[in-house]
Amino acid sequence: MSSPFSFPGASCQKRLLDLADSLQDHGSQRELGVTQGVVIGNQSSGKSSVVEAISGIGLPQDTGTCTRCSTRIRLTPAERFLARVSVHHAGAKPRRVGDPITDKSKIEDVVRRAQLEALNPELDVDELLTAPAEKIKELTLEQAQHTPFTQNTVSVMVEGPGLIDLSFVDLPGLVQNAPSNVVSFVEKMVVDHTQGNAIILVVLPMTDDLENQKALRLARTEDPQGSRTIGVLTKPDLLGPGSITALANWKDVLEGRGRHPLELGYFCTRQPDDAERASATTPAQIRENEKAFFRSTQPWTELTRQGQLGIENITLFLNAQLVKRIDENLPRITQEAEKRLRECKKELDKLPKPIEEPVAHLLNLVTTFSDEIKLHVRGNLEAASLIQTQNEVYQHFMCNIARTVPNFAPYLDTERYYDFANSLDQEKEDEDTLVFVNSKNAFNIDRMSSWIEQSKTRELPRYIPFEAVVGLILQFQEDWDSHMLECLQAVDDSIQKLLHDTVKGHFSRHESLKRFVGSILGDLAERKRNECQSHLKLVLKSEKTPRTLHQRDYQELTKTWEAKFRSLRQRDQSTVRPQSTLASTPSPSHRPAKPLPKRREAPTSSFTQSQPLAPEGTSRSNTPFSIFNFARSNPNLAHASQSSSAESSWTQKDDDELNAVLSGLNTNDYEDELRTMAEVRSYFEISFKRVVDVIPSLIDLCFVKGLAEEVQPYLVMKLGLCTTSASEKCAKFLAEDASVAAKREALMSRKTMLQNVLQELRDFGLQVDTD
Q1: 3-class state of residue 397 by DSSP
Q2: Is 90 exceeded by the pLDDT of residue 577?
Q3: Close Cβ partners of 206 (under 8 Å, ≥ 6 residues apart)
């Protein structure tokens, strides 16, 4: 497939070469492999003379290396001479050096100044243009010590009579006696420019064998078949008539019989020395002198391929090859540009969009972040993990409080210890029901007797001190504070995880913003936790003063527990000391019967959960509501009462029946001790339910919900979104990662280049798909 302009003609050649130049101006050479001519050669190979002969202009000629950057030369036939010099820095638009040149003799000086600017972009172009020529040479030598070569390009656009449409790049000569980094830099520059579809014009001095020519080796590396390499032999005049073997070998090379054949063949040119160049008046005179040399010098007069001698033939052949290959490669370049543009757009789509309004963007981030936190706190189906985790925490807290139940045992040290469920409901329920089990030693009748005696001060005889009851209540509350803190810490951990994960999800694009938001939210969470902890401590402090308004429930529970303890006393009591965990506090085994003292109305309080040890297999109720059920261990109590959780369910008849049952028991057997056990155990039932409800409710209200409600206004304040410097602060917070910004910039530059290339191809007449 070829372009629609595949026909000979000067106008077609010009359009194709102009198109190739335009594509290269857009930086597409490396990306798309646009065909271009490249002149390479070893240092002092005569390369600069060949370039000067082809272009018809004078270029810097110094001892040693005279080309320190790539020089792109575009030749166009015209009636009048005009030249423009510019410098192309990587990733930037070309920068013009000086005004258009109409005097050919001034080009060399301007190009020298342009090369210096390419080597050091920080130099002021205006100062370079006005500096004396000697100063420029000095600066060039000084700059060469620091930056001997550069990837920047000097571009020379030349129009004039006697020129042919041609475009090529002159590369620095390959050096050998230089630091290794310099040698590698130049070789890499040569390799980069000769890859792909470049036409390689390799300059080879005939004063050295082909095997010794590094330039040819590099060309063969990039073009093993020699299908796009043109050999240009120079300095034939330095081989005298006596160099018979060398002349014969070079003649064989030109006629295609050499050891290193090229598909495009070898050409030979003879360029003037310094003296001849100084005496010659015009480029035409120099070319005429070259023709005269080949017409009069052996063995060139005998060469069968006379079309391969002279700079004019080299120029025409290079022009033809360039035009042909540009034309052939246009469809491929078009397809490749379309493909790469699509890939570039996909890569850009993967990157986050650049932020245009920092304040609005950050406010939106804060709002969506706050909404997600509230969504988790509400416990929606799509965000239920937080509440589910906290429900487990609260359930664990309730179990911990249940384990502080008072561990009363209605037995003496000398009596057999019967295990019993520390609950009013002894029926076994499912595995998820609450278990009231306290691992502490049982508090039996002997210990209770000692406790009561130790608590007495000014009481009248036969009265139980209120302090005895309060002291026992405070004992089962000892661990409540630690259980509360454990519960609060577990909730705090779940909140911290939510904040961490949500901050990461919303602000991960902006690392500095993510760190700042994470830090200040940690401060907010700590403040809300401390506030909540203060409220919780007040609740537990209030529990240390026993009090309840559920007096009827308390009285009924006390009677029921007293009945249960008395019924347990009716079992067969052995005088053999049991193997149990009961404390060995001695107490009188026989006490005179005492009338039941008038019961005082004791204030109620919250309590910690503890309960008597029970052996494995003991049936007990595990539900928190079972505390209002009557004991069923004694058949006489099975019908004595119903659940006392609702005050209206208890009737006078029930009360009479329970009193009848109690009167049937031995009321004179350690009445004070059993009564105190029943009072404290009953108060535990009241305060347990209160604490396991109030503590989680306060944590949820003051900490969890309080934090969620304060997140948005707190972030708005801390981020300064309502301040006069909000725009500046937001821009700093939203500054994206440097690597992401660099990648986007590179992709945008590449996208622009490819779009410009496709536009050039479309303008040229090719069908282009940019979707």
Answers
A1: helix
A2: no
A3: 233, 234, 235, 236, 238, 239, 246, 250, 268
Can you say how many angstroms the Cα of residue 441 is from the centroid of all Cα atoms in its chain? 57
Could you tell me which residues are beta bridge partners of residue 201?
A: 39, 230
Torsion of CA 617, 623, 625, 628, to 10 degrees: 10
pLDDT digits (tens, 9 = 90+) for 669-679: 788 899 999 99
> In this model, does residue 263 exceed pLDDT 90?
yes
Q: Which position has the higher pLDDT, 11 or 674?
A: 674
DSSP for 671-689 reads: HHHHHHHHHHHHHHHHHHH
Give the span between the Cα atoms of 350 and 771, in whole angstroms.
18
Neighbours of 211 (CB within 10 A): 9
Is the CB of residue 312 less than 8 Å from the CB of residue 284?
Answer: no
Closest to 66 in 3D by CA, of 87, 92, 41, 48: 48
d(CA 730, CA 749): 27
> Is cis: bond before 299, omega within 30 of 0?
yes
Q: E strand or H helix at 334, and its extent?
A: helix 311-350
How many residues in the chain?
771
Tokens representing 432? 């998820």
- Residue 314 in tokens: 């080299």
Q: Quick check: 456 and 519 in contact, CB under 8 A?
A: no
Q: Exposed (0-12), middle (13-18) or buried (19+): which is 44, by Cβ within 10 Å?
A: middle
Hunting for tokens 């502080």 — which residue is that?
404
Residues 6+ apart with CB under 8 A from 594: 462, 668, 671, 672
C-beta separation of 162 from 283 below 8 A? yes
Distance from C-alpha of 448 to C-alpha of 570, rounded to nearest angstrom: 19
User: What is the maximum alpha-carbon separation in the chain?
Assistant: 155
Q: What percentage of the chain reaches a pLDDT higher than 70?
A: 80
In degrees to the nearest 10, what's the CA dihedral of 666, 667, 673, 677?
90
pLDDT in tens, 277-313: 777 667 788 888 899 999 999 899 988 889 999 999 9
Residue 144's pLDDT is 64
Q: Give residue for tokens 């590094």.
A: 214
Three-state SS at 167: strand
Beta strands in 372-519 (DSSP E): 408-409, 443-444
Q: Could you tell me the pTM of the whole model?
A: 0.58
What domains can you pick out in the chain, each with its CATH number?
1-56+168-352+742-771 (3.40.50.300), 79-162 (no CATH), 376-548+577-622+687-715 (no CATH)
CA–CA distances in Å: residue 566 to residues 74, 348, 445, 662: 117, 83, 12, 8
In this predicted model, what pLDDT tens digit does every residue of 160-215 receive, in sequence order?
998 888 999 999 998 888 788 888 889 999 998 998 889 999 999 999 888 889 99
Cα gap 709→703, rounded to integer Å: 10
CA-nearest of 734, 763, 768 to 355 is: 734
pLDDT(633) > 50: no
Instruction: Give residue for tokens 């030349």.
Output: 158
The pLDDT value recorded for residue 439 is 66
Q: Which of 292, 309, 315, 175 is nearest to 250 (CA)?
A: 309
